[in-house]
Amino acid sequence: MSVNYTVQAEVVDIRSDTPKKEDIFLVDTNVWYWQTYTNASTSSRLYQITDYPSYVAKAISANSLLLYCGQY
């Protein structure tokens, strides 16, 4: 039996968006990597180590719900 999901999502520009408490984000594993691993800056693009961590910090401050999907 196949799974049939209905996804409701919006694409936003994180450089100008302000996260709200009621927002729910599925954060890509790479973003957590850039957010937490200091040496990530040696092999990343500028937006990956500036825009993404900044937006995650704003979402945390706003008490938004941040989700992840584990990899196997």
Task: Explain what this protein looks like in three dimensions.
This protein is globular. It has one domain (8-72). α1 packs across α2 (46-61). It has a two-stranded parallel sheet. It has helices at residues 29-36, 46-61; strands at 24-26, 65-67. It starts with 23 loop residues before the first strand and ends in a 5-residue tail after the last strand. The protein has 72 residues and is α+β, with helices and mostly antiparallel strands. It is 33% helix and 8% strand.
Give the helices and strands, then pairings.
Elements: E1 24-26, H1 29-36, H2 46-61, E2 65-67
Parallel strand pairs: 1-2
Helix pairs in contact: 1-2
Name its key features:
72 residues, globular, alpha+beta
Estimate nothing, just give the exact number of structural domains.
1
Count of helical stretches: 2
| Strand coverage percent | 5-15%
Q: What is Rg?
A: 14 Å
Total strands: the figure is: 2
Low-confidence segments: none
Provide mean pLDDT, rounded: 85
Estimate the global geometry from the Cα principal axes: globular
Q: Could you estimate the helical fraction of the residues in percent?
A: 25-40%
Give me the secondary-structure category: alpha+beta
| Terminal residue distance | 23 Å
Largest sheet: 2 strands, parallel
